[in-house]
Every structure is written in C-alpha cells, then in structure tokens.
Amino acid sequence: MNARHAIHLATRTALFAAVLLLATVAAAGARIDADWRIHIRDAAVVAGKRVHLGEIADPVGDINPKNWANFARMELWPAPPKPGRPMTISKTRLRKELGKYLGDAAELAIYPSSLAIQQGGAVLLEAELNKLVVSSLTPLTAQMRGEVSIRNTQLPSFVFLSDRLNKLEVEPPTSMAPGQITIRMREVTPKGDLVRRITGGATLDQWITVPCAAIPVNRHDPLTPDAVTFAKKNLAYLNGEVWDGKGGPWRLLRPIGAGSVIYQSDIEMLPVLTKGTRVELIYRGKQLRLTVPVETLADGKPGDTIPVRNLHSKKEVYATVQDENTVVIGN
C-alpha cells in the first residue's frame, strides 16, 4: 500500500467514524437530547469541487473538537460550477440534501431560511457589515455636539466578494444629519477599481440638551425664564430648528405643552407695542414735522410697519415702530 492510498483510506475511515457517530447520536433518540447542534450558516464560500460540512456549518454546544474536525471534512453535494456566482438553496431542499449525507443526524442541524454558497471569493456576514459601517462612520461624528451613535443599520444579511483580495469600503455619506441616513458601500479590487455598489441605511442618534417648556404656555405668552427648562432630547426625532435658548425677549406663536421642545419657529420677538396702545406718531417731511396721538391697531416691534388710528381725525395710516412710545412716517 503506497502512502497516498494510506492517507486516502485514513480519511475515509475518519469520515465513516464521523457519520457513524452522528447516526449514533441521532439514534440515541429522535428526542435530540445531544449537548450540541450543527448550525448551518446563511452564506458560505467553498474552495473545492464539492461542499464540505465545515464550510457551511459551525458546531454549537459541547462537542469534542476532534469529532467536529472529522465532521467538517465530510463531503456533501457539488460546489457551484462558476466561481464568483453564488447559488441559493432553500431550507426545504437543504434539509433534504443534508439528509442524504447525514441520515437521521440531519435533525441535529439548525437551518437558516436559505443557504447561499459561492465558489471562491469571500463573504462578509451581517455582524461584520455592521462593524464595518460603525467603525467607518464613527470618526465622522467626532465634531458633532452631544452624544452621537449609529444604530438600527439596514444592511444585507451577507455580501459576497467576487475575489478574496477585494475589499468592501463605506463611502462617506452626503449628510450626517440626525435621523435616517443612507449608507453606500462599494466593492473594490486591490488596485482600487470599482466592482459594484451596495446600498443600506441606518439611524443616526444625536442626544443634546435643548430648551423645553417648563409649564404649559399659550399663544402670545411671553417666554419668561420660569417657563423654560432644559432636557436631553434625540435630534433624530425632532423636526425643525431647535431654539438655542438665547436672545429675546420672546413670546410664543403657538401653545406648547410642558416638556415639549421649543423650536425657533415657535417664537418671535416680544413686541414693544401691543394692539390698543396709545403712542405718538411723528410725521417727518422735507420741511414739516408733525406729532399727533394715535392708537396702535396691531402688535409691533422696532422696524415693523403697523396700522395706527389718529385719535383726533380717526384716520388710519401705516407707520413704522420706533420704540415703545413712538411710531414714525417718513425719513
């Protein structure tokens, strides 16, 4: 017997022992009380002309490493004929095919909804894709205020690379605004040539402290310090520009409940004049200056043009608010 034949015989013997052990465990009851299982992957890359069990499955539980090494070498069905062209096997067919090789021991397997197999190349599973996305985008959040994180990634369950030397890169997003962001990845060759693009998504959270209503406030209420508190909010779920808590004096343009965020669009400068106020109207002409008492017919702040009524003639005109005591017409 030559050495090559001896090695071949030893391999067949080991595989027979593996199959025998699997069958023994299964027969020990269809009750499947073994302390381990065979977990079939969602996607796998194979190297030879036939698929090996160890290329598509991992052991789960308490199994002797030597026994698993024997199981892993077990040859199954023929590999996909064309390198870089995945094929998909449904769960039903997968159970049937494994049953041909493992017999009743196929009941020890934990099956995915389907199995994708590719001859050659490489495969990145969902956990690896998530890690790649987070590690690529996290540095871009360094300059953002507050606590920033990326979650709820919507990515493929796996990505096959057509060549094992190719790599998957994450392209910088066009926007890093809080909320839903688009993720674009590309497979490139070692020379940097583009092979294909893959699109996904994620949620970008940005927690910062923002002004909120401390008490219920009504329309046209002045925004006094006692009516404002500060709370940490996720900008991913806020719509619009949040008030920065500065400036004023302000008043509300709409009712806001206690605890609600105050947006810039919710406030306006508190008018120096309110409707019904009596002030002086100054008319400035080229050679004439008149001062008459008027009543304001609308609220106004400096620079606003509002209607006023002459208290003597009852005539209505438009004038520009100068301060809390004066409106003017002319230069």
Brief rundown of the structure:
The chain is α+β, with helices and mostly antiparallel strands and 331 residues long. Helices cover 18% and strands 40% of the residues.
What would your notes on this structure say?
The chain is an alpha+beta fold and 331 residues long. It has four domains: 3-120, no CATH class; 128-200, no CATH class; 207-269, Type Iii Antifreeze Protein Isoform Hplc 12 (Alpha-Beta Complex), CATH 3.90.1210.10; 278-330, SH3 type barrels (Roll). It is 18% helix and 40% strand. It contains five helices and 22 strands. The strands form seven sheets. Strands 10, 12, 13, 14 and 15 form a five-stranded antiparallel β-sheet that branches. Strands 18-19-20-21-22 form a five-stranded mixed beta barrel. Strands 4-1-7 form a three-stranded mixed β-sheet. β12 (167-171) and β13 form a beta hairpin. α1 (3-27) crosses α3.
Largest sheet: 5 strands, antiparallel
Q: Give the tally of β-strands.
A: 22
Which structural class is indicated by helix and strand composition? alpha+beta
Question: How much strand content do the residues show?
Answer: 35-45%
* Cα radius of gyration in angstroms: 37 Å
Q: Can you give the mean pLDDT?
A: 87
* Oligomeric state of the chains in view: single chain
Looking at this protein, list some descriptive labels.
331 residues, alpha+beta, Type Iii Antifreeze Protein Isoform Hplc 12, five-stranded mixed barrel, 5 helices, disordered N terminus
